[in-house]
Amino acid sequence: MIIKNDKNIVVPDYLNEAFFVCALEEGLRDIKIVIREVEFAWGSKPGENYCSSIYRCTVTYDCCGEYPVQGQKLHLIVKAIPVISETEFLEDVGVFIKEKLVYSDVLPRLEVLSKNDKFGAKFFYTTKSPLPIIVFNDLKTEGYQLASRQKGLDWHHSSLVLKQLAKFHATSMVLLKKDPCIAKRFTKGMLCEETILKSDTFFHMFGGYLNQLIKTSATWPGYENINTKLQKYYNNFKEITYKLAKPKEGDRFSVINHGDLWSTNFMFGYDDELEATRPTRLIFVDFQLTIHGSPAIDINFFLNTSVQLDVLKTRRQELIEVYYKVLVENLEYLRYEPIPTFEDLQYELRSRELYGFFGLFGFLPMVTMPEDLSNDASIEAFTNEEYKARKLADAFSREQLQNYMKFGLKRYADLGVLDEF
């Protein structure tokens, strides 16, 4: 096997010929594959992914089975999840098994039920040795690309995300009715006892963001009362945060949530030659934190981490209406009953506003962080107090982030959300 590594990235020993033979034989359902060449590149920029190592691989191979062909090419993404002490809590949530289940079982079933919608990449292969690894096709070769996380999403990108999310949620509701047991596989998401109460890593990172928001907002005239309430949250961070995704008495309806819906976890396709910057299709990636629960888990998290501020200020309600319209259309197509009312959706969104607030203080600062600040960011790095203090001070000094925070905090204060700690 010839290895091409023009970018001189660090390629681990386990990504060898035997690995790619197994991946292709399983993914292509072929009994004999010969690997000729593998070309490696990084699958994500530094600071774009905090829990995984992602490799982009172009594989040249021969099929030597019943129908032999030579010189075929495949473009693959290899996602490895290193197990280190700082991310050990992810094992307790079952991120690897969960993502494998989504790609190998849930997504194919959703796509069969839907109007031929494609929600995720094609799954090829997975292994737990020498560490958890999952392989799927490279969506970039199908014309998909990431939008800028620093700029945030405009109306066209944001509305397309919510349209596709509504299709995903609606189809999942039908699947849950057909197979209720599947909900038991997705009870633990980003915020749960395993991530928050049983590990200090989560608090080191996300409590650090909240603490920096408290320090920064203390300098803003008119935010004194809000600052006091933020301090109350920080003083009780673990006790409050682990409950945010839990089912509540009075919940109106539930779905399978993506669970980590921010701007690096969906990709856009652009097919309109007359409007080259307007997206026409969207696909989701990274299903490690998929969770069964209120649809507001996805919606509120997305709105608080990925949408441009001017869109939030002027068209937030319109985005909710776009989501609901598509949700209803797909539930009607699938003959699902009873269809939730718009008031049901509004109830869910209000009941999970604190989940959105977690997205605002815990994710928006790193989502919007410029590349020169984020290129060395990782969960492991955030356990270093000196590093964390310097990085957070730099992040919160930016006017763009402060404007987001000021708007979001005033909105939450007006809704009474900050009185719920």
Automatic annotation (TrEMBL):
An example Pfam family from this entry, by short name, is EcKL
Gene3D superfamilies from the xrefs? 3.90.1200.10
Per UniProt, residues of the CHK kinase-like domain are 134-333
Xref: PANTHER family: CHK KINASE-LIKE DOMAIN-CONTAINING PROTEIN-RELATED, PROTEIN KINASE-LIKE DOMAIN-CONTAINING
Protein name, entry field: CHK kinase-like domain-containing protein
Gene responsible for this protein: 106094858
